[in-house]
Amino acid sequence: MTMRGMVLDAPRTPLRLASLPVPSPGTEQVLIRVHACAVCRTDLHVVDADLTEPKLPLIPGHEIVGTIAAMGAGVERFAIGDRVGVPWLGWTCGACAFCRSGRENLCAQARFTGYQIDGGYGEFTLADQRFCFAIPEGYSDTAAAPLLCAGLIGYRSLRMAGEAHRLGLYGFGAAAHIIAQVARWQGREVYAFTSPGDREAQAFARELGAVWAGGSDQSPPEMLDAAIIFAPVGPLVPAALRAVERGGTVVCAGIHMSPIPGFPYDILWGERVVRSVANLTRRDGEEFLQLAPKVPVKTRTVLYPLERANQALDDLRAGRLQGAAVLQL
Ligand SMILES: [Zn+2]
Ligand SMILES: [Zn+2]
């Protein structure tokens, strides 16, 4: 049996539509018929070689929603036909100090979907059942897909922002449009920072309840209690530190960022914290996927057929999207 998939043969080249054999599930693996796969900025970092260790050739994509078509030995959590989601965290060792202390996101041997494991830009994919999630009812496949990374790594970043009431979000793309809804539901005030002059994104942020939206070159009307940086832009770190009140945290949510320029110590002084968020744990996923329907988080998606994956990546790179790009299969 064969399937269609979009393949990365080498960094900085367009994905190639290919006919590939449908893989068979090994022990603990499920074969998933992919229905939707959202396009994450991390996919761009893989294609553009900001992340340098992909398996090649590679089928990208780590925000996968599909149904189980076949199962390998030892699969007990799911049955044929169940709808599941597959996130970025694809496998961990389960034995190291990080794995044993609730920090499997930091496992040195972790393997990631759509990076070291073939992902969801194809009609079928394999996943380890232990790292799959049930998808909440009430979400269509395409609406649910962005929850799996933009949503749940965004949620982890929001947790790292602590109790902050006034929350800044730098970069108002797929993750911020989800996390703004959660933050508002939690009673926080959202301040949205977009590329300077991006009125469309600012209007989108206000629509989702931001009390203020402006360019990342502007100062917010009030000092923030915390900020999350979703844009992969190093100079936003000192900008966010300048906007954050004493004791506040600046969370860098992305897997890659351009170099951070030097800055004077006094913008860090006052017990301000700069930290990154790396990957996700399964607990983040379980928590967020229970929370999302309660808010309820509504995702805005721009749909593409599988063979237009390169266009979706280009649109994301150029900042032409409001919300999340999703491949519909
Ligand atoms: Zn480990
Ligand atoms: Zn992602």
What's the layout of helices and strands?
Elements: E1 2-7, E2 16-21, E3 29-39, H1 41-47, E4 64-71, E5 83-86, E6 89-91, E7 111-112, E8 124-128, E9 133-134, H2 141-144, H3 150-160, E10 166-170, H4 174-185, E11 189-194, H5 199-207, E12 212-215, E13 224-229, H6 236-243, E14 244-252, E15 273-276, H7 282-291, E16 301-305, H8 309-317, E17 324-328
Parallel strand pairs: 10-11, 10-13, 11-12, 13-14, 14-15, 16-17
Antiparallel strand pairs: 1-2, 3-4, 3-8, 3-17, 4-5, 5-9, 6-7
Question: Descriptors for this entry?
Answer:
single chain, 329 residues, alpha/beta, 7-stranded mixed sheet, 6-stranded parallel sheet, 8 helices, binds zinc ion
Textual characterization of the structure:
This protein has 329 residues and is of the alpha/beta class. The protein is 21% helix and 28% strand. The protein has eight helices and 17 strands. The protein has helices spanning 41-47, 141-144, 150-160, 174-185, 199-207, 236-243, 282-291, 309-317, and strands spanning 2-7, 16-21, 29-39, 64-71, 83-86, 89-91, 111-112, 124-128, 133-134, 166-170, 189-194, 212-215, 224-229, 244-252, 273-276, 301-305, 324-328. It is globular, with a radius of gyration of 19 Å. The mean pLDDT is 97.
